């Protein structure tokens, strides 16, 4: 049986095996549903089958192998969307590549028993299949990497914004401590502000290190814990008052403001 026909008529068998492999990968086993695991598998396989079936001369084959064939629809292909979704679902680039390696092996393992004898046409079909798999993987990697870059830039922008407040508070506290008229009571207050600011910065730097270690897969780290939002707001207003002593800040709260929040993220907002 010709390979493109085999893929078209055995889609469910191939997808089921691919899905089973994806479920062995960390993020998939933890958070992804069966529907999400299948996301665009069918579209990827149909595109591969169509590619194998399409006639191609030696020059076209060489240009394709060198990545010289422009495809205006590549950014909207099933493989491209698959790559973006895998990045959003906390897959690593290695896990994404492993999926395609498993897909390649699965299709060939299921198809070869249907081949009566090896011929030049059979070899050519295998070559075209591998080209199509490589093309799909390339499209997935491009969108995966682009989304990871966007996530990294967003994280660094948020981190840079969040660090300004505690740094400003500590700088102002240092200026105040140099004044001779500062009393013991004020020193204690200033010390509390410096300690709170250093605590915030410590957690932000820890977030940055964790973010780097996971290669940005999970995006901005969020650590929820039981928190009183009113206390966080009062501390933020106190820090703002120290940074802008000539300004007046008022805070009004009502009701129970306890809940599961990330206190560092809230304080930095």
Task: Indicate the topology.
Blueprint: H1 3-9, H2 11-22, H3 26-31, H4 34-38, H5 41-53, H6 58-65, H7 78-88, H8 93-111, H9 120-177, H10 184-213, E1 225-228, H11 229-243, E2 258-261, H12 263-268
Antiparallel strand pairs: 1-2
Helix pairs in contact: 1-5, 2-5, 2-8, 5-9, 7-9, 8-9, 9-10, 9-11
How does this structure look, described?
It is a single chain. By secondary structure, the protein is mainly alpha-helical. The chain has two domains: 3-150, Orthogonal Bundle (Globin-like), CATH 1.10.490; 151-268. It is 71% helix and 3% strand. The protein is built from twelve helices and two strands. Strands 1-2 form a two-stranded antiparallel ribbon. α5 crosses α9 (120-177), α8 runs antiparallel to α9 and α9 (120-177) packs antiparallel against α10 (184-213). The radius of gyration is 28 Å and the shape is elongated.
Count of DSSP E strands?
Answer: 2
Helix and strand composition category: mainly alpha
- Contiguous low-pLDDT stretches (5 residues minimum) are none
| Cα Rg | 28 Å
Residues in helix, % = over 70%
Q: Outline, from the CA principal axes?
A: elongated
Work out the helix count: 12
Q: DSSP strand (E) fraction? A: under 5%
Report on the biggest sheet: 2 strands, antiparallel
Average of pLDDT: 79
Walk across the major sheet and give the strand order.
Answer: 1-2
CATH architecture of the largest domain: Orthogonal Bundle
**Number of structural domains:** 2
